[in-house]
Design goal:
By secondary structure, the chain is mainly beta. The chain is built from no helices and 50 strands. The strands form 13 sheets. It has a four-stranded antiparallel β-sheet with strand order 1-24-23-22, with no helix packed on it. A hairpin with a 4-residue loop joins strand 23 and strand 24. The chain is elongated, with a radius of gyration of 30 Å.
Length: 720
C-alpha cells in the first residue's frame, strides 16, 4: 500500500505511546468517525457487493475498489474485479474481467498507477502482480502466470504490493502455506527487474508467517503486516530488520499517510487467532508506534473473520474498509474534520387554517405542491367514524361534522381555495383513493388502493398496506388524471381487470405517480398489489416500460414476512409506495416494507439502494420521499410512518443525517405520517393516515449543523 497526503484534524500527540513490547489488547480507544456502509454505485447487474478485498485512493481523488467476485474467487467468473470511482461514489470505469484468480492486495503509486496482486493459481493464471494505468491499460506484469516458484522474480501467493517514491517495488508472499512455501518480501526495480528477497517461515526477527500487507512510511521504512504472528515488522529497504510492533493487533491491511498517520485493519482478532483483541481499524503513528483511535468492527467479537482486510484513506480523511466475508465496503467519516450540515425545520402549528362547513379530514394519504406553491391534499371521506359525521345524518345528530370533499387545495397562507372529487361521469373513482400529484402542466393525478367497496371506509385492521398473496381481483386497478378544477382527462387501467405485475394495461392498487417534465412520461409506484414501477405516456396513457426490484422482471411470488437480517429481497414487497425522479434523472423508489430506497435510471437500470431504519417491521420505514429545493437536490426527505419520523438523507450517499418528529397528535408529532412534499421555498408538507387525519407544514429555516440524530418535535424556537 502507498502513502498519500491525508487532511486530518486528529491530534496525534495525545494518547498513550506503546512500545515494541506492548501486547495487551487495545480495544477501548475513541472512535471519532461515523460509518456509512455499502458506499459506492455498483456496476450494472450487481445488486450487492462481492467479497471486497482492497480499496486504494489515487492522488487525483479516484477510489479503486478491488473485489473477489461473488464466489470469493474470480476463477471462471465474469465480474470485473477492479472498480474505479470518483469521490462521490459514482462508478467511472471497471476492468479485469477473467484476468484474475484471486485478487488480493493493491496500491496506487505516486503517478496514479494501480498495482494489484493475484494470490492464487488456477488454469494457468495467477501468482502475478499487475500494474495498470489510471484508465485500465496493463503496463507491467511481475511473476510467472500460473507458476509457483521460489526462484528470483517468481511468486508463491503474492499478498500485497508497495511502491517507493523512486519506483522500487516491494511484494509480500505467503498466505496459507502456498505451493513451495515462500514467506518473504521481494524487491524489484521500477522496470520490473528482480533485486532481492528476504524472509522465511518462522516467528523470529525477519521471519514471517503470512506476511499479508506492506506499506512504506515517510522515512522509507518498510512495514510488513506479519499477520499469523500477530505483529508488524519494520525493515529498511534492503531488508535490514529494525523493529517489531504488536500494539496494532493482527494486521490484515496497513495504510500510512504522508504525515505518518498509520491505519491498520485487523480483520481476524478475537477467538483463537488473537484472544482478547477486537476486530476493527486501529489508527496511530508510524513515527512512534502510538495508537490513538479504534474504529470497532460491527462484528468485533465474533469468531469468524469478519472485519475489514483492506484499508484506504482519502485526502479528506475518510477511511475506507474492504470487508471480505460480509461483502461490503465501509466508509468511516471523521467527525472532527467535517461539520455535518442539514436543512432545519420548524412546525407551523397554525397551518392550514380551519376548514369551512364543519368539514373534517379522514385518512389523509397524499400531498403535492404545484408551481404556484399551492398545496394539494387528498383524503378518504369514508374513513371517518360515525361519531365524526353527525352533521350528515337525517335529521342531523349534531352540528359537527361532515367529511370534506376528497381533493382540497390550499394557498401558501393555508386558506382553502378549491375542493372537488368523488365519483363522476366517464371515469371510475377509486374505492380507496391514494396519492396525489400535480404535474408540471398543472394536471392532477390520483391513484387508489381499494380492494372493494369496503375499502372506502379506510384502513383495514388499522393498516393500509395489506396485500394479497397472488394475483387477486381488486377494484382499484387505475390511475386518474384531472385538470386543476376537477375536469376528467384520462384514465389508465380498468377496475377489477389486473392480471398481475406484468399486465401492461392495468395497474393494481397504484400508490403514487410522478410526471417527468423532460419526457412527459408518467411513473407509477404500482403498488399495493403489483411489485413494480411502470411508465406510460402522460398524454395518451400508452405503455412504455416496467420493472421490479434491481431492474428485474417483476413477479407475484409471496416473499413472506420481511426479515431484517435476511439477504435483501430480490423483488419489491408491497407496497411499492412511491417513484420520484430527481433533476439529474435518477428515479427513487419507495420499497416500503423492505425498509429501503432503490435508485434507478429512467430506463430501469439499477443504480444503488439504501436501507432506512432497517430493523423496522410492520408497515416499514420508507413511505414517501421528497427532494430539497436547492438546484442539486442535495437532500432527500423520507416519510417514515411506522417510526413516526421524517428522515433527512444525504442524496449522494443515502445516509440519514438527522430525523425529526415523534409519535403523537400534537403539532410536530405524527401518527402514520404517510406522504411528503416540498414547495419552492423548501418548506415541507406532510399528511397522516390512520387516525392522524391531517396535513402539517414544516417551515424551512436554512442549513444548520447536525447536533443530534433524532431532533424530536421541531417546535418554533420563538415559542419556546
Amino acid at each position: 500500500m502507498r502513502r498519500f497526503n491525508v487532511i486530518l484534524s486528529f491530534c496525534l500527540t495525545a494518547g498513550v505511546t506503546l512500545a515494541q513490547s506492548a501486547s495487551q489488547p487495545i480495544n477501548n480507544l475513541p472512535n471519532p468517525y461515523r460509518t456509512v456502509r455499502d458506499w459506492g454505485q455498483l456496476p450494472t447487474g450487481m445488486t450487492k457487493w462481492p467479497a471486497v478485498t482492497a480499496v486504494e485512493v489515487a492522488p487525483d481523488g479516484s477510489i479503486y475498489v478491488i473485489e473477489r467476485c461473488f464466489e470469493n474467487s474470480c476463477a471462471g467468473r465474469t465480474e470485473p474485479p477492479i472498480l474505479k470511482y470518483d469521490k462521490s461514489g459514482k462508478l467511472v470505469k471497471s476492468w479485469g474481467s477473467e484476468m484474475f484468480v484471486f485478487p488480493h492486495g493493491a496500491t496506487v503509486d505516486g503517478q496514479g498507477n494501480l498495482w494489484v496482486t493475484d494470490e492464487q493459481i488456477k488454469d494457468g493464471k495467477g501468482y502475478q502482480v499487475f500494474k495498470f494505468s489510471p484508465d485500465g491499460k496493463l503496463l507491467l506484469t511481475l511473476g510467472k502466470a500460473g507458476v509457483a516458484s521460489a526462484e528470483p522474480g517468481a511468486f508463491d501467493e503474492p499478498t500485497d504490493v508497495a511502491v517507493a517514491p523512486n519506483g522500487d517495488i516491494f511484494v509480500t508472499e505467503g498466505h496459507s502455506g502456498g505451493t513451495v512455501g515462500n514467506q518473504r518480501v521481494s524487491k524489484f526495480s521500477k522496470d520490473g527487474r528482480f533485486i532481492k528477497s528476504w524472509g522465511k517461515m518462522g516467528n523470529g526477527p525477519g521471519e514471517f508467517n503470512n506476511p499479508h500487507t506492506i506499506a512504506l512510511d515517510s522515512r522509507g521504512r518498510v512495514f510488513v503486516g506479519d499477520r499469523s504472528n500477530n505483529r508488524i515488522q519494520i525493515f529498511d529497504q534492503d531488508g535490514k530488520y529494525l523493529d517489531t510492533w504488536t500494539q496494532f493487533g493482527r494486521p490484515s491491511g496497513i495504510f500510512i499517510a504522508k504525515d505518518d498517520t498509520m491505519y491498520v485493519a485487523d480483520s481476524e482478532s478475537w477467538g483463537p487467532d488473537e484472544p482478547g483483541w477486537k476486530k476493527g481499524i486501529r489508527i496511530g503513528s508510524a513515527k512512534d508506534g502510538s495508537v490513538k483511535y479504534f474504529i470497532e468492527d460491527v462484528e468485533s467479537t465474533t469468531t469468524e473473520h469478519s472485519g475489514a482486510e483492506g484499508v484506504g484513506v482519502d485526502a479528506e480523511g475518510n477511511v475506507y474498509g474492504a470487508v471480505v466475508r460480509r461483502q461490503m465496503l465501509e466508509k468511516h467519516i471523521p467527525l472532527a474534520t467535517r461539520t455535518v450540515m442539514a436543512p432545519r425545520f420548524e412546525v407551523d402549528p397554525a397551518w392550514p387554517k380551519p376548514l369551512p362547513n364543519h368539514w373534517i379530514l379522514g385518512q389523509t394519504i397524499g400531498v403535492s405542491a404545484d408551481a404556484q406553491d399551492n398545496v394539494w391534499i387528498i383524503h378518504r371521506p369514508g374513513s371517518l367514524e360515525a361519531g365524526e359525521v353527525h352533521a350528515t345524518t337525517n335529521p342531523p345528530t349534531a352540528q359537527c361534522c361532515a367529511p370534506a370533499p376528497p381533493v382540497l387545495e390550499f394557498d401558501p397562507a393555508g386558506n382553502l381555495i378549491a375542493h372537488w372529487g368523488g365519483p363522476g361521469q366517464g371515469y371510475d373513482w377509486p374505492d380507496s383513493n391514494h396519492g396525489i400529484t400535480v404535474d408540471y402542466k398543472g394536471n392532477v393525478w390520483i391513484g387508489g388502493n381499494g380492494r372493494g367497496p369496503q375499502s372506502g371506509r379506510g384502513a383495514i385492521n388499522g393498516q393500509d398496506e395489506a396485500s394479497g398473496s397472488a394475483v387477486e381481483t381488486f377494484h382499484d386497478n387505475m390511475v386518474l388524471k384531472f385538470t386543476k378544477d376537477g375536469k376528467f382527462l384520462l384514465q389508465i387501467g380498468k377496475p377489477s381487470s389486473s392480471k398481475g405485475s406484468n399486465d401492461v394495461n392495468n395497474l393494481r392498487l397504484a400508490a403514487k405517480t410522478f410526471v417527468d417534465p423532460k419526457t412527459n412520461e408518467l411513473y407509477v409506484g404500482d403498488g399495493y398489489g403489483n411489485h413494480r414501477v411502470i411508465v406510460f405516456d402522460a398524454d395518451t396513457g400508452k405503455y412504455k416500460r416496467h420493472w421490479g426490484a434491481y431492474g428485474h422482471k417483476p413477479d407475484d411470488a409471496d416473499l413472506g414476512p420481511y426479515k431484517p437480517d435476511a439477504p435483501p429481497a430480490q423483488q419489491f414487497r408491497n407496497p411499492v409506495h412511491c417513484a420520484q425522479l430527481s433533476h439529474d434523472n435518477l428515479l427513487y423508489v419507495c420499497d416500503r416494507v423492505n425498509d429501503r430506497i432503490q435508485v434507478f435510471k429512467p430506463d430501469g437500470t439499477f443504480v444503488k439502494e439504501a436501507f432506512i431504519e432497517k430493523q423496522t417491521l410492520g408497515s416499514g420505514s420508507v413511505w414517501d420521499i421528497a427532494f430539497s429545493q436547492d438546484p442539486q437536490q442535495k437532500y432527500l426527505y423520507v416519510a417514515d410512518g411506522e417510526n413516526d419520523r421524517v428522515h433527512i438523507v444525504d442524496r449522494d450517499t443515502l445516509e440519514v443525517l438527522t430525523s425529526f418528529g415523534e409519535g403523537g397528535r400534537q403539532p410536530g408529532e405524527f401518527y402514520g405520517v404517510h406522504s411528503i412534499a416540498t414547495d419552492s421555498k423548501g418548506n415541507i408538507y406532510t399528511t397522516e393516515t390512520y387516525r392522524g387525519q391531517r396535513v402539517q407544514k414544516f417551515v424551512y429555516k436554512g442549513l444548520a449543523p447536525v447536533t443530534t440524530k433524532d431532533q424530536g418535535v421541531v417546535w418554533p424556537r420563538a415559542a419556546k
